[in-house]
Specification:
The chain is of the alpha/beta class and about 425 residues long. It is about 35% helix and about 10% strand. It has helices at about 10-30, 35-40, 45-55, 95-100, 125-130, 150-160, 170-175, 220-225, 235-255, 270-280, 310-330, 395-410, and strands spanning about 70-80, 90, 110, 115-120, 135-140, 185-190, 205, 290-295, 335-340, 360-370, 375, 395.
Length: about 425
């Protein structure tokens, strides 16, 4: 979050002084029948509203601190359609036959169990698997999904069969979980995702260090508050939360920004986002829910081989950062659960472009100190019977999300979180 350039600060302060005087006149006018809307139309606030649109990255008012379980749920969305059978690879000749030149050779797989092996680029995750802090769910997704990116992403982030639902599943989790601190819900990125749609006080940011005014002034907060006080307009609440977020970020920014020794994140936005989430957790900022998006998984062509290519490099990067996150948190990993999801899986057969097309049954990962790891959970339909060329979807994604949220945040009944669906836990969480 950044403010206007230095040249604009004197103008902002002068505008604030003017509006402060105007507000007194406004109150007198209201006493004689004027409305706030008519005042806004005539108060010259267009410039202020324009400035506010550059500053605001939070929504509505923040709740009071001092509540919650001290635990954090991190939701990672792998956008584009993760190739689940190239990540947790079935030990099955049918896979090798269908994948041809892009198949991950069985001899290179990292051992998981008798049915599956892990892509060798995911080597950093194997220690988490061995320590039972990592689990997988295969053949998972929305049971009635199609192969459309946007429709499937919207369905999963909504987690409600009602396509007109106006809230995301994490917003409903927060409703059950109750109020919290300024940083109760954080979206690491430029905007709040659909899973947090409707969440009061969700903060979108590209790192805690971004919450600052580029040109601080002793009067800047008072000026901004004055500019947006007393107006029956969404900007009033938005401006108040922005100023509050900047203020609350100051002590957090004083905590050491460097990850713990041995935590080497990938040099990309996902690595930076996880490092920032770890910083918030270790600073006891009251973080309950965090979201991160990772794009680039729609590999219709040139997916590559086990030695090189987009799939191999993508898996290497996310595995490196997930492992670094666990090292960075240390014992605090016991307070955190990470769930990864994607909108769907990929077709089993390689296409003519050396990639794979949109499929059905996908893969979810669950990582953390509360995870009953070291297993691939849920039903596995095998590859002998496919759904029009796709891995069958036989595990509902809401069972994974629901169990992770309920056990991590110590939630009670999930009826309002997943309307018209009864969560059936798979045993992923301790």
């Amino acid at each position: 979050m950044t403010a206007a350039p230095a040249a604009g600060v004197p103008r902002l302060l002068a505008e604030a002084d003017r509006v402060t005087g105007d507000l007194e006149r406004q109150r007198r006018l209201w006493d004689r029948g004027f409305t706030r809307r008519s005042f806004l139309a005539g108060s010259g606030m267009v410039v202020a509203a324009s400035l506010g649109s550059q500053l605001v990255t939070t929504r509505h008012a923040f709740a009071a601190p001092g509540t919650g379980s001290g635990k954090t749920l991190v939701s990672v969305f792998l956008r584009g359609g993760l190739d689940g059978v190239a990540t947790v690879v079935p030990v099955d000749p049918i896979y090798q036959q269908n994948r041809g030149r892009i198949a991950i050779p069985e001899s290179t797989l990292l051992p998981l169990d008798s049915r599956f092996g892990l892509h060798p680029s995911c080597a950093p995750l194997q220690s988490l698997w061995n320590s039972r802090q990592l689990a997988f769910v295969h053949a998972v997704g929305a049971l009635d999904a199609n192969r459309d990116h946007f429709a499937c992403q919207a369905q999963i982030e909504r987690a409600d069969d009602n396509s007109a639902a106006g809230t995301g599943w994490l917003e409903r989790v927060l409703e059950v979980d109750g109020p919290g601190t300024t940083f109760r819900a954080v979206a690491e990125g430029p905007s709040v995702p659909a899973s947090l749609r409707g969440a009061v006080g969700a903060v979108a940011m590209t790192g805690i260090s971004s919450l600052k005014f580029d040109n601080p002034s002793p009067k800047i907060s008072d000026a901004l508050s004055a500019l947006y006080t007393g107006l029956d307009n969404p900007i009033e609440g938005l401006m108040a939360t922005t100023v509050q977020a900047v203020a609350d970020a100051v002590p957090l920014q004083a905590t050491p920004p460097a990850p713990a020794p041995g935590a080497r994140y990938a040099s990309d936005s996902f690595g930076s986002a996880l490092a920032d989430i770890a910083r918030l957790v270790k600073a006891n900022a009251g973080l309950r829910v965090a979201t991160v998006d990772v794009g680039g998984w729609d590999l219709h062509s040139a997916a590559g081989t086990v030695d090189a290519g987009a799939m191999t490099s993508h898996l290497a990067d996310i595995s490196k950062s997930l492992y670094a996150f666990s090292v960075d948190l240390g014992s605090r990993l016991g307070d955190v659960t990470v769930v990864t999801m994607s909108e769907f899986g990929r077709r089993l057969e390689v296409n003519s472009g050396g990639g794979t097309d949109h499929g059905h049954g996908g893969l979810m990962m669950v990582m953390g100190g509360m995870v009953n790891g070291g297993s691939v959970f849920g039903k596995w339909p095998g590859l002998a019977t496919l759904d029009h060329g796709d891995v069958q979807t036989v595990n509902d994604y809401r069972d994974v999300l629901g169990e992770a949220a309920q056990k991590t945040l110590n939630l009670g009944d999930l009826t309002t979180v997943f309307p018209n669906y009864r969560v059936a836990p798979l045993g992923i969480m301790r």
